[in-house]
Design goal:
heterodimer, A: 431 residues, alpha/beta, D-Maltodextrin-Binding Protein, domain 2, 18 helices, 49% helix, globular, B: 306 residues, mainly alpha, MetI-like fold, two-stranded antiparallel ribbon, 2 strands
């Protein structure tokens, strides 16, 4: 009995000592969404940071996109938000308006976060009402990924940066005729391309500045684009929507199932940070090039803009904001960390890091880096972050109307575009 | 147990016993209150608000219901899909369940094994794993198409992306998961007095006549029970639609519960989702009531025989 008591006492002492040791440690929590590749790389960076800063211990939480937002929303309601959270371009306005995010300007001014190597437009994307709330975790842009070998085989020269949608259609048809494969893969009717980029290339934004109405003038651009896709499908130069959904990853959004991976198409629309994933899935011995989204006129704007693929921000519920800021600085400026992250969240925003990475990354990574350099010089003006109701409009209006009913042949492009305008306006108008 | 005199001491004892009893069920009671009763009550309130979790609920009166009934075309599509599913999948499942139950209602050797085997799909029934398997089977390069090709048929149809067929893959899945209904039927079949069949034999009745004049009438209480349970299950179907088709194509499998979930947990419109949930609950209750009310006309209870 006595011995038991002593051993118990000892245990309590050890626990106590442990607790004291712990109190000195700074505890941070970091949450993000993403794929398995991203989870592994991010955890490695956290481990690296802990090794360099033994006084900091970082716990983390990750999930897929939808689950992540469910979790964060619940945590916000319970005052349990992590110190650092990954933010999305389409949600940041909403979160800031609820005072859930901490302005980062003080940390930038006292040099905790060093942004001297970051271009101003990139910072602007995380700025709301003149205050910086989020720092881009990497830049992104929509891209046309080309199978270089297929182009060579068909004897078609690679398109130039300023190619137009007319040329795009012709090339897609030629590729199909000469090689018997699809010219383009599926998913071109996605809102980012058919709607947003399409109007951006005409100098128009989808939404008004206050986010209360649609800003683009007429439906013709959208209608013409959808008609072009229908022509390509009819000619056999693009997969049907059904085939895209079931065979080429349309339903799951898994780019590793894209038609280009197995050589079934020669042009694919992807985000620039997905190019490496697609190329890796295609395997060694394949050659890919990346060019701008086609435009309406040779001399006009491209549909591209520099989009922050996602942000890091500090929540107002954090108890260790200064330490969280230090981590964001490390994330932004450490070459070592970015080597691990491997531009999977987009091209690093610090010019210095970018230069350092260019020397070491793989050939396909280099293709992406060079593409992003070109986009930085030749892009449409960055549209303001989407209004909070964009998610609802996309899920309940755009996808059922444009993606499904048009491509299942239920509605004509004209009718669908008209409906889209009516229903989206209704949702935006709601108080 | 000994009989206790009603003295004040034993009354105190009684109270103590009660307290102990409540203490024992308190973990369950707590869970029931915190996780079931309170949320249900809260959802009544929420159905009259706009609530996105991030900011406090805002009272909007009947606006959610108005939007649901008059302004949301996807809502009515989901109602139609759900009713279509319930009206096809439930009868189909009951017919399959009864057929298999009758096959197994013999004393042949190995019947117990078959009983267990037929029940397996229902044990793993509503699970994600089965749904994933179903998706593979009906996929473009799946089992069904491979099977069709075996017989020289085209075998190229994209079942899950076809607005006409997608819902039928889910109905088939429901029919295949007949196990629990089958077991209940089997128990019911064993209750039917053997004399009835014997005297029918003597009267020269054939198997079809015996089925319709003895088996079905004798089984009506069981059919009634199964019908109620399966209808409720059919109206709240969720998992297979989420995993196999995710509501597509063209919203043909966007069942009520799935659409409710998407509104609540993907678009964060908890008020709207709560309103939807209450309508579903009312309709389910109403349908069950209708089945109950009509039951006196067609359900036959042994005890009613005078």
């Amino acid at each position: 009995m006595k011995r038991k008591l002593i051993s118990l006492l000892c245990l309590a002492l050890i626990a106590l000592a442990g607790a004291f040791g712990q109190t000195k440690k700074v505890e941070l929590k970091f949450a993000w969404w993403g794929s398995q590749v991203r989870h592994e790389a991010t955890i490695k960076v956290i481990e690296l940071y802990q090794k360099l800063h033994p006084n900091v211990s970082i716990s983390y939480e990750f999930a897929g996109f939808d689950d992540y937002w469910m979790k964060m929303t619940t945590m916000a309601a319970g005052g349990q938000l992590p110190d650092i959270m990954q933010q999305d371009y389409s949600r940041i306005t909403e979160w800031q308006s609820r005072n859930l995010l901490e302005p980062l300007d003080p940390f930038v001014q006292n040099k905790t976060i060093n942004l001297s190597d970051v271009a101003k437009p990139i910072l602007d994307s995380g700025t709301i009402n003149g205050k910086l709330y989020a720092i881009s975790a990497g830049s992104n842009s929509y891209a046309m990924m080309l199978d270089v070998d297929a182009f060579k085989k068909a004897g078609i020269p690679l398109p130039s940066q300023d190619w137009t949608w007319d040329e795009f259609e012709k090339i897609a048809l030629q590729l199909h005729e000469k090689l018997g494969i699809y010219g383009i893969g599926g998913g071109f009717e996605v809102d980012e391309l058919a709607w947003k980029a399409n109007y951006l290339s005409d100098g128009q934004f989808l939404y008004s500045a206050d986010g209360k109405s649609l800003a683009y003038k007429d439906d013709a651009l959208l209608v013409n684009f959808l008609k072009m896709l229908q022509r390509l499908i009819k000619a056999g130069a693009a997969p049907t929507y059904q085939e895209y959904m079931s065979s080429f990853g349309g339903a799951t959004g898994n780019v590793q199932m894209d038609a280009i991976v197995t050589g079934k198409s020669a042009i694919e629309a992807v985000w620039s940070n997905q190019v490496v994933t697609v190329a890796t899935a295609a395997g060694p011995g394949r050659n890919f090039a990346v060019v701008h989204i086609p435009r309406h006129k040779k001399t006009g704007l491209p549909g591209n803009f520099l989009k922050p693929s996602m942000f890091l921000s500090i929540t107002s519920q954090s108890k260790n904001k200064e330490e969280a800021a230090k981590f964001i600085d490390f994330w932004t400026n450490s070459v070592e960390a970015n080597l691990i992250l491997n531009a999977e969240r987009g091209v690093p925003i610090s010019a210095k890091v970018r230069e350092a990475l260019k020397q070491t990354v793989s050939p396909i990574n280099k293709v992406v880096f060079e593409y992003m350099d070109r986009v930085a010089k030749d892009a449409a003006p960055t549209p303001p972050p989407e209004p909070a109701r964009h998610a609802e409009i996309r899920a309940n209006v755009y996808v059922p109307l444009i993606r499904e009913q048009v491509f299942y042949g239920v509605l004509t492009p004209e009718e669908a575009a008209k409906q889209l305008r009516i229903q989206a306006t209704e949702i935006l108008k709601r108080p | 147990m000994k009989k206790r005199a009603t003295t004040s001491a034993s009354a105190g004892r009684q109270r103590l016993d009660n307290l102990a009893g409540y203490l024992f069920i308190s973990p369950w009671l707590f869970g029931f209150l915190a996780l079931t009763v309170i949320p249900i009550i809260a959802s009544i309130f929420l159905s009259f608000t706009n609530y996105d979790i991030l900011s406090p609920p805002r009272w909007v009166g009947l606006q959610n219901f108005k939007k649901m009934f008059f302004e949301d075309p996807r809502y009515w599509k989901s109602v139609r899909a759900t009713l279509y599913y319930a009206l096809t999948a439930v009868p189909l499942r009951l017919i399959v369940a009864l057929s298999v139950a009758m096959l197994l209602n013999t004393s042949r050797r190995g019947v117990a094994l078959y009983r267990a085997l037929f029940y397996v799909p229902s044990v793993v029934g509503d699970s994600v794993a089965v749904a994933v398997m179903w998706r593979q089977i009906f996929g473009g390069d799946g089992l069904v198409n491979a099977f069709l090709r075996l017989f020289g048929l085209p075998g190229k149809r994209l079942w899950l992306a076809d607005p006409q067929f997608a819902i039928w893959t889910l109905i088939l899945l429901a029919a295949w998961q007949f196990g629990s209904a089958m077991l209940i039927f089997l128990a019911g079949l064993k209750q039917i007095p053997y004399e009835l069949y014997e005297s029918a034999d003597i009267d020269g009745a054939g198997p079809v006549r015996k089925f319709f004049s003895i088996t079905i009438p004798q089984l009506t209480p069981i059919i009634f029970f199964n019908l109620v349970m399966q209808t409720i299950n059919g109206l709240i179907v969720f998992t297979p639609a989420l995993i196999i088709t995710n509501g597509g194509p063209l919203d043909t499998t966007n069942f009520y519960a799935l659409y409710l979930y998407k509104r609540g947990f993907e678009n964060f419109q908890m008020g709207y989702a709560s309103a939807m949930a209450w309508i579903l609950m009312l309709v389910t209750a109403l349908l069950t009531l209708v089945i109950f009310k009509t039951s006196s006309r067609w359900v036959f209870y042994e005890s009613e025989v005078k």
